[in-house]
Specification:
The complex is a heterotrimer of chains A (about 325), B (about 500) and C (about 325). Chain A has about 325 residues and is mainly α. Chain A has 14 helices and 4 strands. Chain A has a two-stranded antiparallel ribbon. A two-stranded antiparallel sheet of chain A has the order 2-3. The two termini of chain B are about 30 Å apart. Chain C is mainly α and about 325 residues long. Chain C has a domain of about 200 residues. The longest helix of chain C has 27 residues. The two termini of chain C are about 20 Å apart. The chains are: A mainly alpha (about 325), B alpha/beta (about 500), C mainly alpha (about 325). The interface between B and C is medium-sized, with 29 and 24 residues.
């Protein structure tokens, strides 16, 4: 019997994200010489760091076959809270901590409804998306908030010559990668996402595992909000809006499956986030109509998700139980 | 065994184990014991109670009465985890491995070796431990290989390595060779021999009698929840095992059968094949004939039925309905050509459990009562048809049409499934285990219904695990094993032992 | 004993068809002494005019939810069809400006677009077997972006008076919605399509084996949802006298909330047009009363977020009781 993984189409579908990435690079590189300059590439990386951060958390959730639509709102709540505290003269560090705490709490709320009350993740997080947006608007009194310079300084600052946003992203990426690939907890997330019933029978605490990924997602959303804050220096009422799309897209483009159990934050999700930013960056360089951006992004998401679905169907067909040797 | 009795107590002892489901006894006081380092072969027909007994041992079920003693202690596991902790490992037919994780990770999922002071996996130690386990099962693969890259045989070995990893003292193997090639099977037995030599105790469940006779020290034969034979393997041969497994004589009264008239074929299969599922299946079903399809669980009976009704694809061959080919079968097309399919699993594929009785009854026939083009439903005739078919299958009158179908008993639920197909007036009905899980009274009613349908010219393909059912109802029986037809019996030739011999592996191909 | 009785009554209340209607009436009556202006004719009229487009879209959603899916793109369909219809009809440079047939052509275009967008969603769900929420989330983003791009975020005014009358005049809007509701009700309860839809929602495998053309029927449910979006767009565009990509953008949560609060299940197989009507009534009442209390936009948003969580929770509880 040939193992399912050696099916040629499956190999193609597994490599699709990388192919897509190279195709996009080649396309824009061919259209504009400026595009492939190292400066521009570093710029893309910095610009994509907020999305990448949120997408790291999203990857955790998607690995368990769930989804978190509330990340954009959690970014907003965290940023609004941090901004408010900073404007009232509290130290920078305290407002940042408050921000992360808000993310953790938001994630815990999602986790509660998903694991304890067993409501579909997309409904829970859709509701908390609206809840969070409302809460953030309340904190900001629906006005744009200009933050103290200290945030922008943080964003423009460097540590050992590396821009601070990349330092934050790199640290979290490294931790997330180690957790997922090299800790028992990480490997158990993969097992739970693959088959929650078998995981439960094998003695894993699936409830805890599920709950923790939503909390991780909340924390990553808050950190993503922090990076955005240091780059924008202001909180508008649409801060973080539709970030959930970009995050899901980045994860799925990076090879994470919506059906759970498959995907990596490094290089996968990082590549995915950079890919999305690359497209946007390329559109800017090509002087495209800014109103086109969401069209292009959503088309890319659609392609990524449909490839994932095709892959899943193929896997299901290949793993049909046999009753005689082939 | 005629070993020079060392007075060591047995490792495992079942003491008068009883278990019933819904009042039907499945195990009727089983007492058995097994010494350390021996292999027990457990054989019996479908439904004899083997799986239930093993599920009790493995912590999936609790016995109604009786005790189990394991390694000198009472054994009452409340979950598979507790059974595993006690040292009992169960290698299921459907392997419980995570294909997206590596071999090493699958072997240590709940007990990863960690680096001191960090919650990080100690990869080097993990590899070393895994290599040691894989060596024990003679599997020469890299410990970081994802399980999805392994063949079925290699996965089986990993599953056994997992048992060794938890230091199991008793290994339960349920049909481990089903999807293995001959070479892989031989490797598996080499390994099992060696493990036994090292003192591992095993329970081996299989329909491959030759394997059981050759490999096991002891054999226990179950029939209808009773232990009908037990002793050293040398005391048995295939013929004796089969006659023990069959044993029972016809003790139920069935409607008398008429021989099939010389009628036209309604359903034909010509050399139907699909890799890994069925192989060169050909048969002809005539109008008014009841054709039985016998075979053990996993012999491809249900798979064949699903292919005939267009639910699963087939690679080669041809299906003919009333003499004309049925190309690219789909349920809708089959339905239009006069086929009906009462599926094996009534809760998942037969009924919309939450929907009302009426909605279920009428689902198939609905389109006939909604004339095009507008497709509005003509309710009067529909209700009349529902009432008619209710009485035709003798559905209990206390159940109102508006009640959810899940409130009915199993027998009445099954009548609803049959009735919904009868409303479309099929020429051929495929019945997959139509009487599973229903009480004796309802069964007899069902037999009468099947008989009447055939008498009125419907062709019936009856799949059943109950030999009595097939012997009592059918005009002809086909026996399936590993997806191929192994024997065909006309009514005068009906013989339980011959059927069982064809269904079981009594010899292994060289 | 008393606890068991209470629990039984609680379950019965949860399962009752009229729970939401009773809740709406009770809510109205309780609030009346504190908010007498709620019963003011102008507010009541306003309440009904806000209810109508929501009801239309919620009815479309009901079909999709019964089939076990969900359509998050419907608000974007409203925006896009509004923009397309207005671009065709507007007097300032519309494709058919001033033409006698502009209004019927505009309406036809809107309905056709709605149907096509629904069909596209349905095709992705049935053909590629993508998760419905993912498909419609993506198309929500795409269609919303498309509408903004087409108009460059400008409103389109100068619509023909005949069209404004149709969508804007309460009597017309009411007539349109009532007609649609009757049709939807009959379709669900009396047609082959309706019965098949329930069967698919209950158990798609059983339905497929029983000869139900599952992909076609599921696709049709999304088409209906798309058409309902187009109908709502006619009302929005007529009442506000502009074609705009932001029409209806705020009602997504109301749509799903109202449908699920009414009793249509997120698990599929259960739902009625009448229930959706009750749900819409309840949600509109809450909305109106919150507005009259001068609660801010963000507070209303939070209340609605909480409401949908509550509705989903009640749905999950009902489902658990019924499958137990």
């Amino acid at each position: 019997m040939t193992p399912a993984t050696r099916h040629p189409w499956l190999i193609v579908l597994n490599q699709a994200p990388v192919v897509l990435f190279l195709a996009v690079l080649a396309l824009f590189g061919a259209r504009s010489a400026q595009f492939l300059q190292p400066d521009n590439l570093v710029n893309i990386l910095i610009q994509s760091s907020s999305t990448a951060m949120v997408a790291i958390g999203m990857t955790f959730v998607l690995l368990t076959a769930g989804v978190d639509l509330s990340v954009g709102s959690m970014m907003f709540v965290g940023a609004a809270l941090a901004g408010k505290l900073a404007l009232q003269g509290y130290p920078l560090l305290l407002s940042i901590l408050a921000m992360i705490l808000a993310g953790l709490l938001g994630g815990a709320l999602n986790a509660l409804f998903v694991t304890r009350l067993r409501i579909a993740p997309f409904i829970v997080t859709l509701a908390t998306l609206y809840l969070g947006r409302g809460l953030g608007l309340w904190i900001t009194q629906t006005r744009a908030m200009n933050l103290p310079e200290s945030f922008l300084h943080l964003g423009a600052g460097r540590w050992l010559g590396i821009p601070i946003p990349l330092v934050i992203l790199g640290t979290v990426l490294l931790i997330a990668h180690i957790v997922l690939q090299h800790t028992p907890f990480g490997r158990q997330i993969y097992a739970t996402g693959q088959d929650i019933e078998t995981a439960r029978k094998a003695g894993l605490r699936t409830g805890r595992i599920l709950a923790s990924v939503y909390i991780v997602s909340g924390a990553c959303a808050a950190l993503g909000g922090l990076i955005s804050l240091t780059q924008l220096g202001a909180v508008s009422p649409t801060f973080g809006a539709q970030k959930e799309f970009a995050a899901i897209a980045a994860a799925v483009l990076g090879g994470t499956s919506l059906f759970g159990g498959r995907g990596r934050v490094f290089p996968g999700t990082l590549l995915g986030a950079v890919l999305i930013q690359t497209v946007e960056n390329g559109l800017v360089i090509l002087n495209a109509d800014p109103y086109l951006y969401p069209l292009v992004t959503s088309a890319i998401i659609f392609v990524a998700v449909s490839l994932d679905c095709l892959r899943q169907r193929l896997v299901e067909r290949l793993s049909r139980r046999l009753i005689r040797p082939v | 065994m005629s070993s020079p009795a060392p007075a060591a107590p047995p490792l495992l002892r079942f003491d008068r184990i009883q278990k019933s489901f819904f009042g039907v006894p499945v195990l009727q006081g089983i007492s058995l014991s097994l010494d350390q380092g021996r292999a027990l072969g457990l054989v019996g027909e479908n439904g004899a109670g083997k799986t239930t007994l093993m599920n009790i041992l493995g912590g999936n079920l609790a016995p109604d009465a009786g005790r189990i003693e394991f390694a000198g202690l009472p054994h009452q596991p409340r979950s598979p985890l507790e059974a595993a902790a006690a040292g009992i490992a169960f290698v299921h037919q459907e392997l419980n491995l995570f294909p997206n994780l590596s071999v090493a990770e699958n072997l240590h999922l709940t007990a990863f070796p960690r680096r001191r002071g960090f919650p990080v996996i100690h990869r080097a130690l993990l590899r070393a431990k895994t290599r040691a386990l894989l060596e024990q099962v003679s599997l020469d693969i890299d410990s970081d290989t994802p399980v999805e890259r392994l063949t079925a045989g290699e996965r089986q070995l990993v599953e056994i390595a997992k048992a060794l990893g938890i230091e199991a003292r008793l290994l339960i193997l349920d049909e481990p060779t089903t999807s293995l090639t001959d070479l892989e099977t031989r490797r598996l037995f080499d390994l099992l021999e060696r493990l036994r030599g090292q003192g591992m105790t095993m329970i081996y469940i299989s329909h491959h009698l030759a394997d059981v006779l050759r490999f096991c020290d002891h054999i226990a034969v179950l029939r209808d929840g009773e232990l009908v034979g037990s002793g050293p393997a040398s005391a048995f041969n295939a013929t004796r095992l089969i006659s023990l497994m069959v044993g029972r004589q016809l003790d139920q009264v069935f409607p008398g059968s008429a021989p099939p008239p010389d009628s036209p074929p309604v359903l034909e299969a010509r050399r139907l094949s699909h890799p890994g599922i069925i192989d060169q299946v050909s048969f002809t079903l005539r109008a008014g004939e009841i054709l039985g399809l016998s075979g053990l669980m996993g012999s491809g009976r249900s798979e064949l039925a699903r292919i005939l009704f267009g639910l699963d694809p087939f690679g080669a061959g041809e299906i003919l309905v009333e003499g004309k080919p049925l190309r690219r079968p789909r349920p809708i097309r089959c339905l239009r050509r006069g086929l009906a399919f009462v599926t094996e699993n009534r809760r998942e594929e037969g009924l919309c459990l939450e929907a009302s009785i009426a909605d279920n009854l009428l689902l198939v026939a609905l389109r006939d009562f909604a004339p095009p083009p507008a497709r509005w439903i003509r309710r009067r005739p529909l209700q009349a048809a529902a009432a008619r078919i209710r009485s035709a299958v003798r559905l209990t009158p206390t159940a109102l049409d508006s009640h959810p179908v899940k409130t009915l008993s199993g027998g009445n639920q099954q009548k609803v499934v049959l009735a919904k197909w009868l409303l479309s007036q099929p020429r051929v009905i495929i019945l997959d285990e139509p009487t599973r899980g229903i009480d004796v009274g309802a069964k007899c009613e069902f037999y009468q219904l099947i008989h009447d349908l055939a008498a009125r010219g419907t062709g019936i393909l009856l799949i059943s695990s109950e030999m009595e059912e097939l012997l009592g109802l059918c005009h002809r029986i086909l026996v399936l094993r590993q997806g191929a037809i192994r024997d065909e019996l006309q009514r005068p030739e009906f013989d339980r032992e011959r059927i069982l011999r064809a269904a079981l592996h009594t010899e292994r191909a060289p | 004993m008393k606890g068991a009785w209470l629990r039984r009554q609680g379950r019965r209340a949860l399962a009752s068809e009229y729970l939401v209607l009773a809740l709406s009436v009770a809510y109205f009556l309780v609030l009346l002494p504190w908010l007498p202006e709620l019963a003011h004719p102008r507010n009541l009229a306003n309440l009904f005019s806000r209810m109508l487009p929501l009801l239309l879209v919620a009815m479309g959603q009901t079909f999709v939810l019964i089939a076990g899916g969900i359509d998050l793109s419907v608000t974007a369909v409203i925006g896009l069809t509004s923009v397309l219809g207005a671009s065709l009809m507007t007097a300032d440079g519309g494709w058919m400006a001033g033409h006698a047939a502009a209004v019927p052509a505009g309406i036809a275009l809107m309905l056709l677009t709605g149907a096509l967008l629904g069909a596209a969603n349905g095709a992705a769900v049935t053909g590629l077997r993508m998760p419905p929420f993912m498909v419609t989330l993506t198309s929500m983003m795409f269609l919303g972006g498309l509408a903004v791009w087409l108009t460059q975020s400008q409103r389109i005014t100068g619509l023909p008076p005949a069209f404004l009358a149709l969508g804007g005049k309460p009597a017309c809007a009411f007539g349109l919605t009532l007609g649609a509701a009757l049709f939807a009700h009959l379709l669900l309860s009396r047609s082959l399509f309706g019965r098949w839809l329930y069967a698919i929602g209950h158990n798609p495998r059983v339905a497929a084996i029983s000869g139900v053309p599952v992909p076609t029927v599921t696709l049709a449910a999304y088409v209906l949802s798309g058409i309902s979006g187009a109908c709502a767009a006619i009302l929005f565009t007529g009442r506000l006298e502009t074609g705009s990509p932001v029409h209806g953008r705020e009602i997504l949560l109301d749509v799903i909330g109202a449908t699920v609060i009414g009793g249509t299940s997120l698990f599929g197989g259960k739902g009625k047009i009448l229930w959706t009507l009750y749900g819409v009534l309840f949600l509109t009442l809450v909305d109106a009363s919150l507005n009259l209390m001068f609660l801010s936009d963000f507070a209303i948003r939070m209340v609605k977020g909480a409401l949908i969580l509550l509705a989903a929770l009640i749905d999950a509880l009902r489902h658990r009781y019924e499958t137990a």
